[in-house]
Amino acid sequence: MHQYPFRGPKVSVNSVIFFPMALNWANFNVYLSLDMVKNSRFVLKSVNHMNYFNVKDKVILITGSSRGIGNTLAAGFASAGSKVVLNGMDPKRVDTALNSLKKVSSTIYGYPFDVSDYDSVKTIIPRIEEEVGPIDVLVNNAGIQRRAPLSEMTMEEWTQVIQINLNAVFYVSQQVANRMIQRKKGKIINISSLNAEGARPTIANYCSAKGGLNALTRSMATEWGPHNIQANGIGPGYFKTELTRVLADNPDFDAWVKQEVPLQRWGDPEELIGTAIYLASQASDYVNGFTIYVDGGWRASL
After folding, report:
1. Is 206 a catalytic residue?
2. Are residues 27 and 159 in the same domain?
3. Fewer Cβ within 10 Å of end Cβ, the chain: N or C?
4. Is 6 left (phi over 0), alpha (psi -120 to 50) or beta?
């Protein structure tokens, strides 16, 4: 059975295929199914295509979501009806984020814990699944930066960034994926960066961690794909966040971004929500091991 996407109402055609393309069928996604062997007939099926992007009632754990991009993604999923689990290391900050997002949705939960502490992760993940429900989607977002020239970077500055931006992703993903494997379904979204492919001075630790994260995403897809788990990444370009504030406030760097990015502006963190919902939904069920760069066209212009 071969399927080809078309738009139109539900019809069956025995010999002649006619598609009145001028009609507005925006609310339907229709497939042409061809069975040449049995009866050489074409059959059109109508489906509400918006259901493919439905994330309502899905349990979504977002690490590092008490602020920044993670908090923006949490608000987006909450608005879409998901059960969102917030995470951060500071309990007070998690509580503040929790109270703020409860204005958007009542199905918001907060679990402060250190994602870079393997023993803590092993304790908390089962608790989340018991108290909230099986985790449908894991968003590995927690990350930090410690800037220093590579020749002067301390061991602490190097290892701290690698530990949180890369090792912690392994810790949390392993614990969550082992439960997804038992259920034969799940989605993992790793928040990468443009710097996984394009290095900048003073962030060699960050670039290395994000490059490793892209490789880890492909490894997850390869090993966990047979269990119906899709692992993908999102690579933000230049977005105005707490991590990039020092850059955005620099007039020279701000001008450079607007010159180098084809859209000639910084990204707004809310512009990442659509990609995240896509990767968390049924619409991406056959997308696996891929990092989508949301960068205003920066990579295309290289």
Report:
1. yes
2. no
3. C
4. beta
